[in-house]
Amino acid sequence: MDIVTMNILESTMVSLCREMGIVLMKTSYSTIFNEALDFTCGLADMNGDMIAVADYCPAQIGGMPLLVKSCLKEIPIREIEEGDVILHNDPYRGGLHTPEHTFFKPIFVEGEIMGFAVAIGHIAEVGGMAPGGFCGEATEIFQEGLRVPPVKIKKRGQDNIEVWKLLLANVRTPRVNYGDLRALIAAVDLGEKQMTNIYRKYGKEKIRETVEDLLLYSERRMRAELEAIPDGIYPFTDYVESDGIDPDRKYAINVEVHKRGGDIIVDYAGSSPQAAGPINATLGVATSAAYNAVLHMTDPSIPRNSGCFRPIRVMAPPGTIVNVDFPAPEVGGNTETHPRIVGAILGAMSKALPDRTMAAEGATHCNFVFGGVEADTGEFFACYDLEAVGWGGRSFADGNDGVDSINGNCRITPVEVYETRFPWRIESLAFNTDAGGAGKFRGGVGYTKQMLCLNDQIICSQMTDRHLFAPWGLEGGKEGGLGATLVQKAGRDDWQTMREAYNKASTSRYSNVAIKYGDRVRLVTPGGGGYGDPSERSREAVAEDVREGYVSAGSARKFYGYEAN
Amino acid sequence: MSRVVGIDIGGTFTDFVSYDSATGAIENWKNLTTPADPIDGVLEGLASVDDLEGVRKIRLGTTIATNALLTRRGAKVAYVTTKGFRDVPFIQRGDRRSHYDITWIKTKPLMKRADCHEVDERLSAKGEVVRSLDEATVRELAARIRADGTIEAVAICTLFSYIDPAHEQRIRDILAEELPGIPISISYEVLPKWKEYDRASTTIADAYLKPVVSDNFRRMQQRLDAVGVGNRIGVIKSNGGESTLAGAAQAPVQMTLSGPTGAVVATRALSQLTGIPHLVTFDMGGTSTDCSTVVDGMEHVTTSFEIEWGIPIQIPMIDIHTIGAGGGSIAWIDKGGMLRMGPQSAGADPGPACYGRGGVDATVTDANVVLGRINPDFFLGGRMKLDADAAHRAVEAVAARLGLAVDEAAFAMVQIANNNMLGALRAVLLQRGLDPRDFTLVASGGAGPVHVCDLMEIAGIPQGLVPNYPGQFSAFGFIMTDGRVDRHRTVQQTSKFFDGRRASEAMTELVNGAIGELVEQGYSDQIEVYRSVEARYLGQNHELELTFPANEFTTETVDDFWNRFHEEHQNRFGFSIPGETIETVNLKVVAVAVGNKPQMKELAAAAGAPSASGSRKVRYADGWHEVPVYDRAGFLHGQEIKGPAVIEENASVTILLPKQTLSVDRLGNLIIKF
């Protein structure tokens, strides 16, 4: 292995991926892109193996290898020409969920295809039965928005107008989608152009060899990390509370982690049969989640590429909530079921790896989506935004307060941006006292966002979780606070759940609720579970929590036996 | 009164550069920094100026604000905001420092949650008053703060105050009346731009710094008054401009990044002196390397700076990208068998193995000694003898683990260190859409010249420049500094319904405010004003900055602006959307009090190559070469050297590659080309 060239090539490619991401961030229109940064840019070789990626959204990073590979099954390499840009979002063809759009552009050097520049981004509005892409009551994939199989949105450098027309005719916000699609194309254009230069500089053969070395290097480092974990079989089960259709059923995520030597197998046998509603994960999502969990348990400086995933294998029985069969709905699998899987794997490994795991985090992005017609302009608006939750307590530190769930690393949208863009007034954004699970190290707290509707009507849908099953603690730590969504109709004093107010099956996933002018909505995000026996928590830490208002005097007495003066 | 003295207080040395405009003479000297009270070291250095009376201006870079923030030794701050939003500084943006790091602990803001207070008031996104200010709650709050008795400063940031500051100003007036003597910062004055968390964080930092910076500056003023130069002192702000001590104490957050700006200001001056429009700085020291750009003769200013992860300080400051890689970066081998350099550093103590102070880890400097690039007998101009054997032993240990010869391992160490620094260059060039092929790489710091030729090659930068006294380049920058004020304000409008009068009023207010601030500080020189507008397609969330010609927004200038925006979007991102609505977001003004620029002494001209002072063996990519060694001290304008060669000077050494040529310009700068 040529260590110097490998070092240089790796950092050059990652830097290029970051440059692609900057173009996306700066030119895209949806707040989920440009504020939340829910996108990923990477490079793949001609087999579809990921060779470099920038750290944007973790859920997409783990999904990328399968995405490109399944695309290439459908459009063979020989049919791909220089200047083509391929677009694809179909969850049943390796995609993660319908809003996630993958663009890839071939990198040609002297007429030979060497690999692909790849950009994956979450487009807020995708058509379907509910504005904003998260219909909590969908029962088939067709309701979740326009499915786009791998198609060429550009052919040999020219826009494929027919594809553009179809795409834009099927969404509620064509102006915004047009900007997002252009931004994604600009990102892969940049990646393709720069990577071509890199191939020219080093030569095709040298890059091929070095990339092979690089993937082997990542694999070697991953195996070294895995070898340091005690061998064993580690089981854990957690539950998704409802599918939005059947109010009385819960869904098991069953994991059994088999760790032996430098290999790890995640077996999902025993997980529930697939649901009628949109909480199902595709095999791509379940695989990405296993990768995500393992990356959290190992050295974060290992270069992220297909090599570091080689020691990880996933067994997911078909027809289950972790490997759904066509044509079931699955939009929440990527946002809600993914972090539940990661949490279960971390829970399973918590005894073996106490320094690299944690109690349950909130494990939801809240996913409150909405759309409507703006009174001033008559233009349709749609928004997908996400919220932060409390993270789990750890064997060495409290859980962090107010952080995006583990399969995203997205930012919340500032109040001043939100209100400038959308007809809501946010009335408060405040941490939830006592929502961090008690423990030697307490869980982080979530927060409450209260909003007042300023439009005649806003159509709202949601795909969240943890309204029924609280985030669990570890080693004697207590549960974290539940999440909630409440509505106060104009002229009333009481707050109701969506189930009470609109006769929905679930409080946490529902679609197309008409919120009227003067109605208020309260989004409560869950906290994280605690770690260790609360009685072992230092008195100073309890006193500080009481002083700072994270723990009430009552809870301090109840959980910690502490009398605040 | 023809002398200007620039002073840069570094970690180890305090550097002094003096320039006499009557004679064109430049002198430089240094003494040890006095960490307990840096002004001691400054006064010691000034004592060696024989004619202090004749000094017109003394300019000083200071790390007081930086250190107070980094070590969290600022004031106990009370934060006041709109009802419902006191947790904004704690929630922050909800993202994490990096993926996959489960051990990460979220950064806490600079004040306690218990010291955050809400007042009943609210503006809408259009600036209308939704709830008027409840003054009684403000007075109650003042009573609570007074009763508490521990609060040393107050930060006020209310929602949408960038549209209408009346509520913030009224809260400030009431608190000032109720809490005399406690400094107050309001967001409208610190940073009148949208996005409440960033604005709040910056305002809190300003309040946090006020007591410590004003105490410090007051003491400094007294000490300088005592030696009779107090009225001639200027401190360097993060925007690279100069301010009086009193002016800086009013807005201390402006001092966050004072010291490192020197090399960038010096580079801007080089741009004026040499006529080279685009330069990128490469300031490499023992533990860190700073990179920044000068484009079209102007330094790049950013408002996206974080003092630590998650704590933004968004005042306009010179955009300097710092990485933890320098001469002291230590070699290690990771679990996959890869050689890595840093970020662990041997620092100044024990320092690299070759310092002979007990360091055993192999560093970049040790590798440079093994490769013959650094002369162990002529380090820092011979003031420090290096232990070549110790360097060899340290690198040998790395080589054994890699199965390489010692010189091969040393060469790999240098290449990997170079690659780390390339990351910093990419961050300030490619990640901002700038093409390295348009730039000249300016080497400074003790280690900059050693690596500049390598970096030119791997970064694709066609020209390099090693200035005079590269080791004291920052202090040199301070003698070239102007009085400068940057002011920004968010004024959102769209091309569909653009109200030119509203924009003109805001721009006029910004310009008058910036000029007024300079005049108030006593800058009576010619004041130049630069205006720009940040805009984007309606729906985007990040802006492109384009210059704007005047205070007045006329149909003509506005139409021209829309056209230029489409063009610029095409250039920067490779596409534009003709006919799309454009949104203006921020108006920006820079006012500069242009002083008389130094006229540098020119060298006598000569042709051909200077004569070599000797030769030595240096390891290059293709093996060892016996290369000529030159002493920079005798160089004349127009002389040329073909690589490979080594050029030694007191503070550093330049390693010319085989395919490069070096020439000496009329000012004595070394210009390197392929």
Average pLDDT of chain B works out at 92
Instruction: Output the structural class of chain A.
Output: alpha+beta
Total number of helical segments of chain A? 13
Number of strands of chain B: 35
Structural class of chain B: alpha+beta
Task: Give the C-level CATH assignment of the largest domain in chain B.
Answer: Alpha Beta
The percentage helix of chain A is 25-40%
> Which CATH-level-2 architecture of the largest domain in chain B?
3-Layer(aba) Sandwich
Question: Strand sequence of the main sheet of chain A, in spatial order?
Answer: 2-1-5-4-3-6-7
- Whole-number radius of gyration of chain B? 26 Å
Summarize the biggest pleated sheet of chain B. Answer: 9 strands, mixed
Largest sheet of chain A: 7 strands, antiparallel
Number of domains of chain B: 6
Q: Could you explain how this protein is built, in words?
A:
- Helix content of chain A is 31%, strand content 22%.
- With 565 residues, chain A is an alpha+beta fold.
- Chain B folds into six domains: 106 residues, 2-Layer Sandwich (Nucleotidyltransferase, domain 5); 140 residues, 3-Layer(aba) Sandwich (Dna Topoisomerase Vi A Subunit, Chain: A, domain 2); 127 residues, ATPase, nucleotide binding domain (Nucleotidyltransferase, domain 5, 2-Layer Sandwich), CATH 3.30.420.40; 89 residues, no CATH class; 111 residues, Dna Ligase, domain 1, CATH 3.30.1490; 60 residues, no CATH class.
- Helices cover 31% and strands 28% of the residues of chain B.
- In chain B, strands 13, 14, 15, 20, 23, 24, 31, 34 and 35 form a nine-stranded mixed β-sheet that branches. A six-stranded mixed β-sheet of chain B has the order 3-2-1-4-11-12. A four-stranded parallel β-sheet of chain B has the order 6-5-9-10, with helices on both faces.
- Classes of the chains: A alpha+beta (565), B alpha+beta (674).
- At the A-B interface, helix 1, helix 5, helix 6, helix 7 and helix 10 of A face helix 3, helix 7 and helix 12 of B.
